[in-house]
C-alpha cells in the first residue's frame, strides 16, 4: 500500500517524523543545523539553491519548523519568530495608524501591556472586551468594526474558553480578521484555523518546544495570499525578527514529541484538577476539563484529546497560597508553561496591579508521575 500523503497523516506521525525531513546530504534521519547567514550564487549569478540568499529572508532551519507547524495546524503557511511577543508585534505592526482593534480582556498580561502601549503610540483605538462572553464580543464587533480581533483560548491565567467560530463569524461580518493566541492548547489540542480563525499565534517557548530551553514564537495562516500575511512576511524580512538556526533546530526536535507531551500533560492536569476540586484547602479550581467549568461544553467541541497543561486554583484564605507555594518540592517556582517539568506561579506577587487574587496559584502541569505531583500539592496545602 502506498504511504499516506502528508495531508492525511495524523499529528503524531507528522510530528515524530518532522513531516518527512531528513539530512539530504548524509541520509541522516535528523536534519542538520545550517548556521550560514549567506548563500553562494553561481556563475550566472542565480542562487545555487533557489530562494537561499541571506538568512534574514530565508533560513533553512526556520523553514523546517514552519513546514512541520503548517502541517500540524492545517495551515497554508507558517512563520517563526524569536519570541512569542515578536509574533504578537509582527501582527500589530501591520495595522495602520487610526485603525480599531478588539482585544480580549484578562489574557496573558505581557500581551495586554504591550498592545496597550503600542496602540497608544500608533493612535490605534483599542477596545478590550471579555471574548468568552460571545454576545459581548459580537456586539463590540458590530459597534466598532475592528480591523483585527485578538483572542486567547484557553486564556492565561483565567482558563476562559472563547468560541472561535462565533468570534470569527462576528469579526468577519464586521470586515475584520480574527487572530487566536493558541499557546496553551497547541495545534495538537485545537487547530484554530479549522474553526475560522485567520491566523493562529503561539508562544513556541511553551508547549510547542516543551523543554523550557528555547524562546520562540509562531504564526500560522489560513490564506497565505492575504494582505496581512504578505505584510508580516515583508516586515520580518526587512525588520529582521527571525529565529536563529540553533533555536529553530531545538524547536523542531521538541515538536517531534508534542502530541505525546500534550496528551500526558492534559491527563496529569485533569487528575490534579479533580484532586484539587475535592481538597478542603481549595476554594475553586479553574480547568476546562472539569464539568463544572463554565467553558467545559465549548472546550469539548474545540479541544481534542485533552484540555492542556494550564490550571489555576484559588486557595482558601488568600495569603495561604503564598505559604503553600513555598512548601512545594517538585513544582518549580518559576514562570512560563508547557514544559515537561511542572511549574507553579503566584502571579499576584509578580503582577499585583492586574487584579489577580492573592489566593490564585497557576500550575503548568508537566509529564511527571501524576501521583508524585498530587503528593507534593497535598503536603504543601496540608492534606
Ligand atoms: N502568549 C501567551 C499566552 C503567553 O503565555 C506568553 C508568555 O508567557 C506569550 C504569548 C509571550 O510569549 P514569549 O514569552 O515567548 O514572548
Your description of this structure?
There is one protein chain. This protein is α/β, with parallel strands linked by helices. It folds into 2 domains: 11-255, Type I PLP-dependent aspartate aminotransferase-like (Major domain) (Aspartate Aminotransferase, domain 2, 3-Layer(aba) Sandwich), CATH 3.40.640; 258-381, Alpha-Beta Complex (Aspartate Aminotransferase, domain 1), CATH 3.90.1150. 37% of the residues lie in helices and 15% in strands. It is built from 14 helices and 12 strands. The protein has helices spanning 11-16, 60-73, 84-92, 109-122, 134-144, 164-173, 186-189, 227-239, 245-255, 258-277, 296-302, 320-327, 347-350, 370-381, and strands at residues 77-81, 100-104, 125-129, 148-152, 177-181, 199-203, 217-221, 282-286, 310-315, 332-333, 343-345, 360-364. The strands form 2 sheets. Strands 1-7-6-5-4-2-3 form a 7-stranded mixed beta sheet, with helices on both faces. Strands 8-9-12-11-10 form a 5-stranded mixed beta sheet, with helices on one face. Strand 2 (100-104), helix 4 and strand 3 (125-129) form a beta-alpha-beta unit. It is globular and about 75 Å long. The model has no long low-confidence stretch (mean pLDDT 96). The site of pyridoxal-5'-phosphate has 15 residues, from helix 3 and helix 4.
Amino acid at each position: 500500500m502506498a504511504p499516506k500523503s502528508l495531508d492525511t497523516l495524523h499529528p503524531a506521525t507528522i510530528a515524530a517524523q518532522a513531516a518527512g525531513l531528513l539530512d539530504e546530504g548524509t541520509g541522516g534521519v535528523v536534519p542538520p543545523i545550517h548556521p550560514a547567514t549567506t548563500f553562494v550564487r553561481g556563475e550566472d549569478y542565480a542562487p545555487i539553491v533557489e530562494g537561499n540568499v541571506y538568512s534574514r529572508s530565508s533560513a533553512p532551519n526556520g523553514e523546517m519548523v514552519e513546514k512541520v507547524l503548517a502541517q500540524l495546524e492545517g495551515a497554508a503557511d507558517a512563520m517563526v519568530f524569536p519570541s512569542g511577543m515578536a509574533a504578537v508585534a509582527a501582527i500589530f505592526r501591520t495595522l495602520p495608524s487610526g485603525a480599531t482593534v478588539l482585544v480580549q480582556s484578562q489574557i496573558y498580561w505581557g500581551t495586554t501591556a504591550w498592545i496597550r502601549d503600542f496602540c497608544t503610540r500608533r493612535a490605534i483605538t483599542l477596545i478590550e472586551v471579555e471574548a468568552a462572553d460571545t454576545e459581548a464580543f459580537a456586539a463590540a464587533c458590530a459597534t466598532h468594526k475592528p480591523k483585527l480581533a485578538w483572542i486567547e483560548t484557553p486564556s492565561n491565567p483565567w482558563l476562559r474558553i472563547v468560541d472561535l467560530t462565533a468570534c470569527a463569524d462576528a469579526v468577519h461580518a464586521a470586515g475584520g480578521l480574527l487572530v487566536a493566541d493558541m499557546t496553551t492548547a497547541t495545534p495538537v489540542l485545537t487547530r484554530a484555523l479549522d474553526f475560522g480563525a485567520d491566523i493562529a499565534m503561539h508562544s513556541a517557548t511553551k508547549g510547542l518546544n516543551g523543554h523550557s530551553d528555547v524562546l520562540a514564537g509562531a504564526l500560522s495562516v489560513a490564506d497565505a495570499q492575504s494582505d496581512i500575511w504578505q505584510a508580516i512576511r515583508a516586515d520580518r524580512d526587512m525588520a529582521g525578527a527571525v529565529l536563529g538556526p540553533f533555536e529553530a533546530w531545538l524547536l523542531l526536535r521538541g515538536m517531534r514529541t508534542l502530541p505525546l507531551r500534550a496528551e500526558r500533560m492534559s491527563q496529569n492536569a485533569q487528575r490534579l484538577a479533580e484532586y484539587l476540586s475535592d481538597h478542603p484547602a481549595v476554594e475553586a479550581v479553574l480547568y476546562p476539563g472539569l464539568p463544572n467549568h463554565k467553558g467545559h461544553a465549548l472546550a469539548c467541541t474545540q479541544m481534542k484529546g485533552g484540555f492542556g497543561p494550564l490550571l489555576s486554583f484559588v486557595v482558601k484564605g488568600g495569603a495561604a497560597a503564598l505559604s503553600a507555594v513555598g512548601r512545594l518540592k517538585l513544582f518549580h517556582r518559576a514562570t512560563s508553561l508547557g514544559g515537561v517539568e511542572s511549574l507553579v506561579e503566584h502571579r499576584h506577587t509578580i503582577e499585583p496591579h492586574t487584579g489577580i487574587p492573592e489566593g490564585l496559584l497557576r500550575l503548568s502541569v508537566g509529564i511527571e508521575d501524576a501521583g508524585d505531583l498530587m503528593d507534593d500539592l497535598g503536603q504543601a496545602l496540608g492534606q
